[in-house]
Backbone:
């Protein structure tokens, strides 16, 4: 009976969801809300899984419940009700911020490739030598210097630039992931304070927060202006570090390109590879 109640709740929420807010394609629709295929794509499961879940034939994991809640952009009350129906407690506590030995070893493995570790609130916790070699995300004298979202929306580093399209995609990704973090960790006051500050001081962030876009993957290109090496175009890739609840952002250049050669020169002049723990609040 409980699984049928859970399935009915998921279906009701899906059918009443605003496709535009959830990040689905707009346009004429024969039915209201999100289609099963759209919810499945946004939540990272199959359409058949959603169908069976709504029929009361699947017991989702706690992670799937959180993913569905995030895909539907549920408020706290609806999220708690889904958790209760599925037999789980809502995610509480604080965002994990400690980089364990495994995460630091991962960063070391990149060697000559610029990379950094960040928590899910976009606080950078560790950076490798190759990142510092770019000299593009230096501190600005603010307590949130090491928070990527704050630097992007409030005090973007002058040494990093993107096309308008890529900048918009980058901002949408930051806001979407930060919104998911706020939903998962409602008791983390530092996350709530960051969101409140950004919503109050940045109209672009507030707009994205009120009508978020769904971003399932992260690939973004930026130009890094090194004072000695000139412009270097790098592609950013985001990797999950599930054991520590962190993210690794890795910057690479196209093999054999001028950018790869310039990156090699800049990183080579920076000295032996190493990993540095930094403040919890990030390079843009």
Residues:
């Amino acid at each position: 009976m409980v699984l049928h109640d859970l399935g009915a709740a998921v279906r009701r929420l899906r059918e009443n969801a605003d496709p535009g807010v959830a990040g689905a394609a707009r346009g004429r629709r024969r039915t209201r809300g999100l289609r099963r295929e759209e919810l499945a794509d946004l939540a990272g499961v199959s359409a058949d899984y959603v169908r069976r879940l709504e029929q009361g034939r699947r017991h989702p994991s706690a992670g799937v419940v959180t993913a569905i809640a995030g895909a539907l952009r549920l408020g706290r009350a609806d999220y708690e009700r889904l958790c209760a129906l599925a037999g789980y407690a809502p995610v509480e506590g604080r965002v994990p911020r400690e980089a364990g030995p495994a995460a630091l070893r991962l960063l070391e493995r990149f060697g000559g490739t610029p990379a950094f570790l960040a928590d899910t609130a976009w606080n950078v916790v560790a950076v490798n030598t190759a990142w510092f070699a770019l000299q593009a995300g230096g501190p600005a004298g603010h307590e949130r210097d090491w928070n990527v979202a704050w630097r992007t929306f409030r005090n973007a580093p002058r040494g990093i630039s993107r096309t308008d399209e890529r900048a918009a995609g980058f901002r949408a990704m930051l806001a979407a992931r930060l919104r998911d973090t706020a939903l998962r960790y409602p008791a983390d006051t530092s996350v709530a304070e960051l969101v409140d500050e950004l919503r109050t001081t940045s109209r672009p962030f507030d707009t994205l927060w009120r009508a978020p876009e769904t971003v399932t993957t992260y690939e973004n290109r930026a130009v890094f202006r090194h004072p000695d090496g000139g412009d270097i175009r790098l592609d950013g890739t985001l990797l999950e570090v599930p054991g520590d609840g962190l993210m690794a952002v890795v910057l690479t250049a196209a093999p054999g390109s001028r950018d790869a050669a310039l990156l090699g020169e800049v990183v080579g002049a920076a000295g032996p590879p190493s990993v540095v723990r930094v403040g919890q609040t990030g390079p843009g």
